[in-house]
Write a structure and sequence with these properties.
Layout: H1 2-7, H2 23-41, H3 47-57, H4 62-79, H5 82-98, H6 103-115, H7 119-132, H8 137-151, H9 154-167, H10 174-185, H11 188-201, H12 206-218, H13 222-225
Amino acid sequence: AALLAFILKIKLMDPLPYKLKFLFPFIIIIPLASFGTYQRNKVWKDNFTLYKTDIKTVPGSARAQLFFGIELLNKYYKSKNKIELNQSIEAMETACRINPDFYHAFYNLGLAYQANDDHQKAVKAFERVLQIETKHINSHYYLGMSYGKGFNQFDKAIEFIEKGLKYGYNGADGYVNLGISYAMKGDLQNALKAFEKGITINPGNANLYLNMGITYDNLGEKEKAK
């Protein structure tokens, strides 16, 4: 704009005089810009195509790497294609290397490690999130899940799942997994309390009733189990 004003000798503080000669530069600029925009529009076909292009355009962008990794992880959840999961982990690990304080990247990387049943790395990723953002709701919850599923450390699983619920985790599986953690520890009474609490919040969750029934059966209360 400044260059055009200089070439056309427009005084920027004065009202713009509408003259035909001012149109000529735009006759050149607009088709070129339109072509560039049209070419870029192909990249916006969907989020996956956009982020796949952007990690090539700006490979040093932690955000581009993270968003590409998230798209791959979502594709993996549907397809169960391990190649997509491995590519997702690679992209998110790159994001974390670029910006070691980018806790969103570490959180999603933790989810990807969990999907890969690599709970040791998942724990490290979620712990890194909590070093940066001490009350990150989901990281507490999923850290507890990894301690339970990956290491059978049910006391730690209960501790972190309860923190996640305390801070506001509202996933339908929250009290299901809290109750299961108590049950796996052998504390069936607290398992029942967790399932009951979950039912008061989400009475339409079938898994809560199912696991409550299993717990009653393990306690020998057959009628309640039914």
